[in-house]
Design brief:
This protein has about 170 residues and is mostly beta strands. It has helices spanning about 1-15, 95-100; strands at about 25-30, 40-45, 50-60, 65-70, 110-115, 120-125, 145, 165-170. The protein has one domain (about 20-170): Immunoglobulin-like, CATH 2.60.40.
């Protein structure tokens, strides 16, 4: 009887639509010849708490830079092919971790602080976003964009300027 219950439990968990082990490794690269030295890596992982986002950047101009998930799946045309911020809820621009889905685009991840040595890191978990789960807030197949300026959270997209680095979010597991 215990074995049968374990099999039923395993079947329910495997078909529940909740995926916690999905991972994407995103290679971030400069979008133009002037920014070709920018390099970085983002690792996105589905967890029970939400989408864990870990980013390491190198050779970026010092200061704060807007950091967003964009709708498209291409970094062509100096990152313009990535389209606008990922916004399935048609919400105003904001900071997703603070403002939630009703008051921020699902792709509004805020800013990355880049030091005088050109490096910066992000390590956060965004509740409600998913890499490979079901629903409107799935980010696999989209892009990550690093902008030239700080996101000031103004409307409609934060006044963060051009796109200086881009990477495609593709599942690795």
């Amino acid at each position: 009887m215990k074995k049968e219950m374990l099999w039923v439990l395993a079947l329910v968990l495997s078909t529940s639509g909740t995926v916690f082990a999905a991972t994407a490794t995103v290679a971030l690269k400069g979008t133009s010849p002037a920014m070709e030295k920018i390099a970085g890596q983002a690792v996105l992982t589905d967890t029970a708490e939400g989408l864990k986002v870990t980013v390491d950047l190198q050779n970026v101009p010092p200061g704060k830079h807007g950091f967003h998930i964009h709708e498209g799946d291409s970094c062509a045309d100096e990152g313009k092919a990535a389209g606008g911020h990922f916004n399935p809820d048609k919400a105003p621009h904001g900071l997703l971790s603070k403002d939630g889905f009703s008051h921020a685009h699902a792709g509004d991840l805020g800013n990355v602080e880049i030091g005088a040595d050109g490096t910066g890191k992000v390590d956060t978990v965004i509740s409600g976003l998913t890499l490979a789960g079901e629903g409107a807030h799935r980010v696999a197949g989209r892009t990550i964009i690093l902008h030239e300026k700080e996101d000031d959270f103004g409307q409609p997209t934060g006044n963060a300027g051009g796109r200086i680095a881009c990477g495609q979010i593709q599942l690795t597991e």
